Amino acid sequence: MADPCIITVAITGSVPRKKDNPALPVTIGEQVESTQEAFEAGATLAHVHVRDENENPSSDPERFARLQEGVTKHCPGMIMQFSTGGRGRAMEQRGAMLYLKPDMASLATGSVNFPTIVYENPPDFVRSLAKTMLDSDIKPEIEVFDLAMLYNTADLVAQGLIADPPHVQFVFGVKHALPARREILEFEVAQMKKLLPRATWTAAGIGRHQLEVNHWALEMGGHCRTGLEDNVRWDKTTLAPSNAALVRRVAELCAEYGRPVATAAQARALLGLRPAV
């Protein structure tokens, strides 16, 4: 039987506001409800951001704690992955919630241009975040927006700042970063297998590229990411009715490629995570 596919759902993101899509969950209650629906549709990993009362990106640990508590209660065994991304948050705040010890947290291992900003991840900052995650038994998901980030990751693994095997996510379709081309994914996966032969990987496509990247990942043996964060943030022509609808679409694709949808327990085992309590 082919390897199970872990479906990651990115439920909210840092932009746009709810007015851009009424389906986007913003409050903690909306996020918990949307995550539960996505979990029941087949997602076993939730990539999460939180917003303040004005819908602005937030690093408030209390909000992350409430979201973590709600998802843990309503989605037994689901993997929680906190975002440490920099859009709308000061650098010193981006890891403020890691003391809550989620299963995973995102970690971009270099800087890159985004459509209107520079996504800054200086080397010392990356090393500090990696060390915090290592000390707290949080598995990083390495966010690869450019080839150098893969090589930086290999260096951090060699230095003992990221435990081996790492989990890598290749992100395609962000303007000024990696274009959504299959040959680029094939090259990056081949390089990853040389540098980090035990690594697991996911691919994410932004906006109109989401579905085609899902197809590539399933065919190549990787895992899939979907969700309103990617679907509405960059391309408002591809609005979806809900996170659960996007997850169901990926689950249906899994069947087409003969890939079973991973259960929460299988996802934890594939990623080398501790069993759910």
Which helices and strands appear, and what pairs or packs with what?
Elements: E1 7-10, H1 28-41, E2 45-48, E3 50-51, E4 57-58, H2 61-74, E5 79-82, E6 104-108, E7 112-113, E8 118-119, H3 123-135, E9 139-144, H4 147-158, E10 167-172, H5 182-195, E11 200-205, H6 210-220, E12 223-226, H7 228-233, H8 243-256, H9 264-271
Parallel strand pairs: 1-2, 1-12, 2-5, 5-6, 6-9, 9-10, 10-11, 11-12
Antiparallel strand pairs: 3-4, 7-8
Would you write up a description of this structure?
The chain has 277 residues and is of the alpha/beta class. The protein has a single domain (7-271), classed as Aldolase class I (TIM Barrel), CATH 3.20.20. The protein has nine helices and twelve strands. It has an eight-stranded parallel β-barrel, surrounded by eight helices. It has a two-stranded antiparallel ribbon with strand order 3-4. A two-stranded antiparallel ribbon has the order 7-8. The longest helix has 14 residues, at 28-41. It is globular.
